[in-house]
Amino acid sequence: MKQIEAYLFFNGNCEEALEFYKRCLGGEITTLMRYEGTPMDNGQLPPGWKQKVMHSTFESEGARFMASDGMPGQPAPSYGGFAMSVFVPGDAANARKAFEALSEGGKVTMPFEPPFWGGHFGMLTDRFGIPWMVSSEH
Q1: Beta strand segments in 69-118, E
Q2: In 3-state terms, what secondary structure has residue 102?
Q3: Strands 28-34 and 53-60
Q4: What Cα–Cα distance (Å) separates residue 107 from each residue in 27, 38, 124, 127?
Q5: Given this model, what pLDDT does residue 85 score?
């Protein structure tokens, strides 16, 4: 079966973002590869870039996304036209906890409340500029 997964790019703070998501979503970093020791580590990497994240995978309860610091010398990423969506089954309290954690240092664009279609729903942009939608069935 095919899978479609998000791949997020950060501007040199990917590892910090992954640790933040680990705390907020209760997941784990299952893959983390640095630029050091790769074919790109041939004397051409900018200073401090060897320890940047070349590729990573984050997993939480069967859901996952990948992330990277991107390629050296590339412009800072901008995030538009998409949102990471998290559905938390069961009680809205766990979804609210994830929403509030993700919003720390970011901006709530729609409070986490019951929408007209039922359950609970909220939208935010986290402190790394990533847009999120968090929902629950109750």
Answers
A1: 84-88, 107-113
A2: helix
A3: antiparallel
A4: 22, 37, 6, 8
A5: 97
Is the Cα dihedral 117, 118, 119, 125 positive or negative?
A: positive
Q: Residue 98's closest CA among 86, 89, 108, 107?
A: 86
User: Per-residue pLDDT averaged across 12-38, rounded?
Assistant: 97
Q: Which of 53, 58, 56 is nearest to 22 (CA)?
A: 58
The DSSP code for 16 is H
Return phi, psi of residue 24, to 5°: -70, -40
Q: How far apart are CA 134 and CA 98, in angstroms?
A: 8
Mean pLDDT within 68-92? 93
Tokens of 68: 């990277």
Q: Are 84 and 64 in contact (CB under 8 A)?
A: no
- Distance between CA atoms of 21 and 55, rounded to whole angstroms? 16
* Residue 118, pLDDT above cutoff 90: yes
